[in-house]
Amino acid sequence: MNPMPPATPRRATITDVAREAGTGKTSISRYLNGEMSALSPELRARIEAAIERLDYQPNQMARGLKRGRNRLIGMLLADLTNPYTVEVLQGAEAACHALGLMPLICHAANEVEMERRYLQLLTTYRVEGVIVNALGVREETLRPVGGGGIPAVLVDRSVEGLVADMVGLDNRAAAELGTRHLLDNGFDEIWFVVQPFEQVSSRQLREAAFREVMRAQGEWSASAVGGRGEGGWGASGVSGVSGPSRAGANGRVRGHTLVLDLADSAAVQRGLAELDRAIDAAGDASNAPTNAPTNAGRIALFAANAPVALCLALHLKARYGAAWQSRVALLSIDDPDWAELTGVTTIRQPTYEIGYRAVEFLHERIEGVQTSARDCLLPGELIVRASTLR
Amino acid sequence: MNPMPPATPRRATITDVAREAGTGKTSISRYLNGEMSALSPELRARIEAAIERLDYQPNQMARGLKRGRNRLIGMLLADLTNPYTVEVLQGAEAACHALGLMPLICHAANEVEMERRYLQLLTTYRVEGVIVNALGVREETLRPVGGGGIPAVLVDRSVEGLVADMVGLDNRAAAELGTRHLLDNGFDEIWFVVQPFEQVSSRQLREAAFREVMRAQGEWSASAVGGRGEGGWGASGVSGVSGPSRAGANGRVRGHTLVLDLADSAAVQRGLAELDRAIDAAGDASNAPTNAPTNAGRIALFAANAPVALCLALHLKARYGAAWQSRVALLSIDDPDWAELTGVTTIRQPTYEIGYRAVEFLHERIEGVQTSARDCLLPGELIVRASTLR
DNA sequence: CTGTTAGCGCGTTCAT
DNA sequence: ATGAACGCGCTAACAG
């Protein structure tokens, strides 16, 4: 509980240093910018001493104001609660470090309003570029960015109508990889669980890839509950099988898409209830005990990302107890800490590289590269754990 | 793959707006600062229109340069990988939002060098204050901050020799709460597992509180492995019991502190090996089967925070399989997602409030409050799960 | 090699 | 009610 010293005494400016060193501001500026070749060793020493004595530190704001660039880039993140985001961030930070950029991290916390505000703020602070992991968002919100505005690169998802570089997972390949894995391991009923994807390209692609594989192999049908309103399957509507009749017995595989809006707990409850019915039905219909040496008759859940997987796992654990995985298998895109702990199979994204590449792209744009908008799709890696084996 | 439009055309300045509106810069400035009372409705309309037409956005850098305050505060975070950090961040962001501050998030990623660099950077950007969740760090690194420098408030840990406000968990109470819970549930051998704590006040306090409770109830001894070098028990050295002889049988409770340096995988291996020996010994010595209706003879692990708990859980799961919790109980300070999923008992920190209060404190300092350095200790909440019951 | 001058975009007296 | 002029801290010509 020592008394605190008085407030900041006002920092030294370049003028102070110049006076202290008995010279002009220009020389100080030159010194700061490493133009040593244009300074006599003697003057240089005096400057060094003066800086030391005054504990001088150049004001980056003023600096940026003058030269028109402040080495600041914005990182607009939808959700730091998602391990994916933090991992991407690490790669991005490393790249910034290497390229002499300073990232301003903005956390929208899943609120579109926040996203808008931060974008505005970044603009007024004149960041040189923005890398954005947008939440489902209309192009208009990103207006100040991309095409006409400041350089931008999108991470994980692209935004309709917004021309900009983007880097993320090869979603099609990843979803196919996961689906094939489940099929290869004998599952004949697979539920793909995903958040509302009308607005989010990565979710769309994952779901579409899953659906296509399932249609090629057997049947697919959509869930009625979950999404708000019309759902996202366009004019084609629900296809293939109609009701939840069991088809596994005859050797055909059945795919099902369930939309879970994690932001709407009532909708989550409804979705999970539907899932429960399917799981119970599978348990009844299957004449083999749940610990049979095959996966036929055991339902597999394919979570489109870690938050969904966590939601599912928590629910299943609460409903079926610690041994829930003997009743249902879980596979998730994203590879959070707890996956290893619970033996859940995952598809790990190259998160670090995604972040790194994103910043590299942005840096090129900032330096004036004018090529067409690029897409960088990186492959995911399947990590097989006990959950999907038998 | 549309061709990208040409680079940014240069944003409008206040001068442009003044010209467009057919007036002087001053009026524009007044408008921007809400001094409407000093503007004729007619002029005001013209300004509004001009701003709209030019899509003008004031340059915060220049603004800050002029008035000497930029509403920026730095948030120096040791490890965004730790859920604790993200949760604190959310509270802090909410407070910033409410107080009109813009947080600059800096992620040191557990590297002291990074911490130093970011602090430097924040200083040169003239942030008005800093809230810092330091990694074990010498006071000198924080020199530019606190006392003589810019206002600062510490989160979670205090730094020796640095006078500044601090807000965090009531570590003593939390550790006592956890220890008592274990004792009350019949455990007679408890291992407190913690990262090296010579530099980290919160870890020190937790360990000390644990040790004191154990000494009052029975015995306590230190682990030989783990920490780098001398360990952290000061001149008192190891006390109480010497070797890992079983004492549970005679009704006495035994406490043990194990230091695990998560940054040093070899040390982690050694520490875990010692733990394994103890667990195996307990399993042998206990004449009751591991599923006996009592916890006597079952070892309890008390993790000082979530990263430690995760490390322990992963190891135990790998060694004893999915049913590891029947052999050993786990209690952790911090309440990560996976705790609920795996049924681990925790002590949840009031993270959101910690972040919120930290920013409030900082704001007061920025506004010139001069009281003595304050400590704000918030209570933790015990969340009992299956792991520590029987 | 070194100092002088002129802004960068904005806020703020101080006149009008 | 409104605008001209000066300066924030710094860099970039342009002289000397």
Automatic annotation (TrEMBL), chains A, B:
Single Gene Ontology MF annotation: DNA-binding transcription factor activity
Superkingdom: Bacteria
PROSITE patterns: HTH_LACI_2
UniProt keyword list: DNA-binding, Transcription, Transcription regulation
InterPro entries to which the protein is assigned, alphabetical: HTH_LacI, LacI/GalR-like_sensor, Lambda_DNA-bd_dom_sf, Peripla_BP/Lac1_sug-bd_dom, Peripla_BP_I
CDD domains xref list: HTH_LacI, PBP1_RegR_EndR_KdgR-like
All residue ranges annotated as the HTH lacI-type domain in the record: 12-67
PANTHER family: LACI-RELATED TRANSCRIPTIONAL REPRESSOR (PTHR30146), RIBOSE OPERON REPRESSOR (PTHR30146:SF145)
This protein's name: Transcriptional regulator, LacI family
Gene source species: Paraburkholderia terricola
